[in-house]
Design brief:
The complex is a heterodimer of chains A (157) and B (213).
Chain A lengths: L5 H25 L9 H9 L6 H23 L2 H7 L2 H12 L7 H23 L20 H6 L1
Helix pairs in contact in A: 1-3, 1-5, 4-6, 5-6
Chain B lengths: L5 H27 L8 H12 L2 H23 L2 H21 L7 H24 L12 H7 L21 H5 L15 H13 L4 H4 L1
The chains are: A mainly alpha (157), B mainly alpha (213).
């Protein structure tokens, strides 16, 4: 049940979540292997190449590409000053995923208040949008579908 | 604070400028795009393809890649807990620029505290990252290299030493208590700093994108 207002935000969440998932895929794909950084600009770049053919790394990069495409869609509907700070939700996803999927050691003493602050800040910025009739830059919202479904819901499905 | 040299500040400036202007370009390019039906997945795909083909969007994506390239040398000079808060500064820059250049209406009364909260949150996460030494995953003692850098003496390899310089004074006593009196030399491959730089590389190389998208 998307409302017209929630649609772009839902899409943004999907976009950020996919990017974060891509990040986790990259990390998992690398495993414990180190990429030598000996000759920094070019040598290191050459060292990265063999990692690119790993399935998980490729999945991560693919998720990035999809996430980028969705971001362009988000930008269409949301003013930049609202959408861009919300990208920081990626921190929340990445920290949670790296703790529970990658089983990394997370300092919750710092992470929990930090994540709460981010969520709170993003919510504040989002409030600026909810109050408005139209987006800040005059872009029309996606048209409400007669059936009550947002186009986004249908497109994502 | 030996880590914030003129070079790293310059890199930071370049990075924030490139990524912010990149975002502005993308938004400007998307703005000009005509209304597109996004009712179906095919419609979304068509929209994305048509959008990416627009010059401003291409320029924006290009600037983004350049920003990611500037990010790597920055990371090799500054530890993550310092670099993280810097990232949140780009949120401020983008909001200000979108108000000034794109003429978007910004509700500062909500945006300002929101941005501050995001900055605090990102800094807290970065602080936690900086405090947890990489070896702590397995509960190992800090290496000789870590101890050396703990005292803010630059290691022999400035690139690998990225993560360990310039802690705040308040963190030091607590951490020093865990330091063995005679730190043993660890093999280079096991050096936690390498572990960290590889973690950094995987975290950031392929995609700064996530942090900013």
């Amino acid at each position: 049940m998307w409302s017209r207002r929630a649609g772009p935000f839902a899409l943004l969440m999907i976009c950020v979540a996919m990017g974060s998932l891509g990040q986790v895929c990259l990390k998992a794909g690398l495993g414990g292997d180190e990429i030598a950084l000996d000759a920094f600009p070019l040598g290191a770049a050459a060292n990265v190449l063999p990692f690119l053919i790993r399935p998980l790394v490729m999945a991560g990069i693919g998720l990035y590409v999809v996430s980028t495409g969705l971001w362009l869609l988000v930008l269409r509907w949301l003013p930049l000053n609202i959408a861009f700070p919300m990208v920081s939700l990626g921190y929340v996803f990445v920290v949670l995923l790296s703790a529970f999927v990658l089983h990394e050691h997370v300092k919750w003493l710092f992470a929990l208040p930090g994540l709460s602050c981010i969520v709170l800040g993003v919510s504040l910025i989002g409030l600026g949008r909810v109050d408005e009739k139209r987006s800040g830059d005059g872009e029309p919202l996606p048209p409400a579908h007669p059936s009550g479904n947002s186009p986004i819901e249908r497109s994502v499905r | 604070m030996g880590e914030l040299t003129l070079t790293s500040l310059g890199l930071l400036f370049v990075f924030i400028t490139l990524s912010s202007v990149g975002q502005l370009c993308m938004k400007a390019g998307v703005r000009g795009a005509g209304a597109t039906s996004t009712a179906l997945v095919r419609g979304v795909l068509r929209y994305v393809v048509a959008t990416v083909a627009r010059a401003a969007v291409l320029v924006g994506i290009g600037l983004y890649i350049l920003a990611a390239l500037a990010w790597l040398p920055l990371l090799s000079r500054v530890r993550l807990s310092v670099a993280y808060p810097m990232v949140s500064f780009s949120y401020v820059v983008v909001v200000v620029l979108s108000a000034a250049v794109l003429r978007e209406r910004v509700r500062w009364r909500l945006a300002l505290p929101g941005l501050v909260l995001i900055g605090v949150g990102v800094s807290l996460i970065g602080l936690g990252t900086g405090l947890s030494r990489p070896g702590s995953v397995s509960g190992s003692q800090p290496s000789a290299a870590a101890v050396r850098d703990w005292h803010s003496v630059p290691g022999p390899d400035p690139q690998a030493a990225s993560g360990w310089r310039g802690r705040t004074r308040a963190q030091q006593p607590q951490r020093l208590s865990g330091v063995p009196s005679v730190p043993e030399r660890v093999p280079r491959r096991r050096d936690p700093r390498c572990e960290q730089s590889s973690a950094l590389a995987s975290f950031l190389s392929a995609g700064q994108a996530v942090c900013y998208w």
